[in-house]
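User: Predict the structure for this protein chain, please.
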Amino acid sequence: MMEVVFWIILYLLLMIIFVRAIYSVIKKKQVPLAMIAILIIISVPMVSLMNSIDRPLEMSEFEFLARELKQGALWAIFTIAGYLYLLVWLILSLKK
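Assistant: Here is the predicted structure, written as structure tokens:
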């Protein structure tokens, strides 16, 4: 049940960030940063999904991501960096 709630919250936040980024582009505020956010919103979930497909069944997506990050997998680093960028961008865009 907690996994379902986690995914609902995550994708709800991604939708909010996507709408906020589109709004920023339309209003011509922080356009380059908003365009990067849009690209990350599209690419990070796809990269994460494609690499998590063959994970062990007993392991959750988060555990698999953490394990791959410890092993230095580029996709895991990209995923974490992408989500961090989105979080920072959202906070900074709400402050302005």
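Residues 2-26 form the longest helix (25 residues).
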